[in-house]
Amino acid sequence: MQSPQRILVIDDHPLFREGLRPLLQNLLPEADIVGLDDVESALIMAKNAQGTVRLILVDLQLPRMGGLAAIGPLRRLLPDTPIAVVSGSEQQSDARAALAAGAQGFVPKTMRPPEMVHALRQVLEGGFYAPPSMMGAILGALPESGGSGADEHGLTQRQRQVLECLCQGLANKEIARQLNLTQNTIKTHISAIFKTLGVMSRTQAIIEARARGIVQG
């Protein structure tokens, strides 16, 4: 029997968790929505649910261990699961800190439901998300590309290989296998590609790469 797919929502406000439920069911109808009050409970769940968690949403303000401190331990337990911070804060400094800690998205709680679904879908599909007003802060927190080995587009040879694989529609696991690299290394390259191209998602990266003539087709 196939293991159930889960979305973890780490937030100590039950009303907010319940309010998210219909949005998340729209995003992933087959997933169980698991609400958790604190990070400690989430870490226990993560240890026992490897391979079944599709998305993690975490608030910044939580009892005992805060959401920002939780990102690292969650990332180590579930390295292939995207994490988004869903917060009442709209500070660029919080968005930058969340991304630097390993989150793929920063989603203010004040967003309208359709916009929030769009944002979380972008994170779920392997991209990054922040509100347009925070875009500069988020791109600034992504790993640097370029360097002495960069081409005229600011990409290294390895980043071009990863970009070509993205344009072929390959998932991170498939790219890692094809290039004989770890999935975490692939994620780092993709983050650097996004920063160099000034984009926030795989789809945008593919469109931009083709528009610039970096890849053909």
UniProtKB/TrEMBL annotation:
<dbReference type="InterPro" id="IPR001789">
    <property type="entry name" value="Sig_transdc_resp-reg_receiver"/>
</dbReference>
<feature type="domain" description="Response regulatory">
    <location>
        <begin position="6"/>
        <end position="124"/>
    </location>
</feature>
<dbReference type="InterPro" id="IPR000792">
    <property type="entry name" value="Tscrpt_reg_LuxR_C"/>
</dbReference>
<dbReference type="InterPro" id="IPR011006">
    <property type="entry name" value="CheY-like_superfamily"/>
</dbReference>
<dbReference type="Pfam" id="PF00072">
    <property type="entry name" value="Response_reg"/>
</dbReference>
<dbReference type="GO" id="GO:0000160">
    <property type="term" value="P:phosphorelay signal transduction system"/>
</dbReference>
<keyword id="KW-0238">DNA-binding</keyword>
<dbReference type="InterPro" id="IPR058245">
    <property type="entry name" value="NreC/VraR/RcsB-like_REC"/>
</dbReference>
<protein>
    <submittedName>
        <fullName>DNA-binding response regulator</fullName>
    </submittedName>
</protein>
<feature type="domain" description="HTH luxR-type">
    <location>
        <begin position="148"/>
        <end position="213"/>
    </location>
</feature>
<feature type="modified residue" description="4-aspartylphosphate">
    <location>
        <position position="59"/>
    </location>
</feature>
<keyword id="KW-0597">Phosphoprotein</keyword>
<dbReference type="GO" id="GO:0006355">
    <property type="term" value="P:regulation of DNA-templated transcription"/>
</dbReference>
<dbReference type="InterPro" id="IPR016032">
    <property type="entry name" value="Sig_transdc_resp-reg_C-effctor"/>
</dbReference>
<dbReference type="InterPro" id="IPR039420">
    <property type="entry name" value="WalR-like"/>
</dbReference>
<dbReference type="Pfam" id="PF00196">
    <property type="entry name" value="GerE"/>
</dbReference>
<dbReference type="GO" id="GO:0003677">
    <property type="term" value="F:DNA binding"/>
</dbReference>
